[in-house]
Amino acid sequence: MSFLQDPGFFAMGVWSIGAGALGAAAVALLLANTDMFLSKSQEATLEYLEDIDLKTLEKEPRTFKAKELWEKNGAVIMAVRRPGCFLCREEAADLSSLKHQLDELGVPLYAVVKEQVGTEVKDFQPYFKGDIFLDAQKKFYGPQRRKLLFMGFIRLGVWCNFFRAWSGGFSGNLKGEGVILGGVFVVGSGKQGILLEHREKEFGDKVNPLSVLEAAKKIKSRSPASENK
């Protein structure tokens, strides 16, 4: 049993344990930066979106079916993960930069939020140049809701997104639910269908504004004659 009293043997054991722990941590970090463990998205159907109940944010809210948003002229719709998030504010500003071009196309810009927390929606509005509605049942975040928890903070892409938004001068807070991931939809008029569906895969995974604009250009506005059919 003399080897138990050998300082060299003890040091080698500690080193082996430490090396094993570092190796395990490195593997975990590597896997966390792949898409292997990310929640899988499920594409929405037009029928699914049409039947979603939305509410206006007025003192006396009105409940209506989401299809009203795009029935005549189509729509660009942002499903906001969290209004106070500086990454969401950055994406809202990007989409709002298209407002003039969308107006020329006759395509409205909207957003939906999951909840109303204090003045968070009001504070979000300077970044978003469109009407905002409440999706209390979080249907725009489905059909299969995806969540990103603590793993999001060890993803290199997320930290790159943080730096990008910080460098752009965006700031925010941590108020409200923020782990259910959002997205952006471009929906055609009537039964034209979903022309673009972007699902946020990690915090700050924003849609390409050029892709939104290209999809919006494909929207066919409904004529009075087609509405009467």
From TrEMBL:
GO terms for molecular function: antioxidant activity. CDD domains: PRX_like2. Keywords: Antioxidant, Cytoplasm, Membrane, Redox-active center, Transmembrane, Transmembrane helix. It comes from the Eukaryota. One of its GO terms (cellular component) is cytoplasm. It is found in: Cytoplasm. GO terms for biological process: regulation of osteoclast differentiation. Its main location: cytoplasm. The chain crosses the membrane at residues 12-32. Belongs to the peroxiredoxin-like PRXL2 family. PRXL2A subfamily. Involved in redox regulation of the cell. Acts as an antioxidant. Inhibits TNFSF11-induced NFKB1 and JUN activation and osteoclast differentiation. May affect bone resorption and help to maintain bone mass. Acts as a negative regulator of macrophage-mediated inflammation by inhibiting macrophage production of inflammatory cytokines, probably through suppression of the MAPK signaling pathway. This is Peroxiredoxin-like 2A. It comes from Octodon degus (Degu). The lineage of its organism: Eukaryota, Metazoa, Chordata, Craniata, Vertebrata.
